[in-house]
Amino acid sequence: MAPAELVLLFDVDNTLVDNDTVQEQLHDHLARQFGEEAARRYWVLYEEQRQVEGFADYLGALQRYRLEDLNDPRLLGMSEFLLDYPFHDRLFPGALDVVHHAATLGRPVILSDGDAVFQPRKVHLAGLWKAFHGHVLIYVHKEQMLANIEHWYPAHHYVVIDDKLAILDAIKQQWGERVTTVFVRQGHYANDAATLAKHPPADLDLGSIAELISVTAAELTGAASLSQP
What we know:
Layout: E1 4-10, H1 19-34, H2 36-53, H3 58-68, H4 78-83, H5 95-105, E2 107-113, H6 118-125, H7 128-131, E3 136-139, H8 146-152, E4 155-162, H9 165-175, E5 179-184, H10 187-190, H11 193-198, E6 204-206, H12 217-226
Parallel strand pairs: 1-2, 1-4, 2-3, 4-5, 5-6
């Protein structure tokens, strides 16, 4: 692929999709179907799985939960909630409008962490695979995959839009002025005071993904150099 002037890399969870609400509804579903103790145990396994793998593995945690209680046939129905969840209804307001706006500025691409089954399905069910015309990258640790990103989507300048300041900081340290980092203050990661205190601010700071629709390409590329000491 010929180098683009500008490639805009969008995170998914809590950037385009309200994943906190998805988790809350999953917890309520588990508590109703299996009891509060079962729901609590699932999230313990989920967190253990996330620490080991480095990404949210909902199905992996479900498989571990099932192995703990093979005698309960109701567990076979737990995956249906996740695999058929209406993620399109959980898009943040203005998310698709922002994607269409990004296409007028450069080449929009999804850049997400996740597993190889559930995360792509989430992207499809949210309508994002179609909105990004199949330009989707899903890694385990995306901040460690910059060379691979450059291989698939070469560009003179990159813009990374994410709700996790730690990831934006790691990418900024590697790409420097070649990247503009955009911090979207949505979700629990974006509002964790301890995490925010550990990292320098991003090049741009937005209260919601919808605010990106008013930002121009010149403002995006210019913010990268302005933020440098």
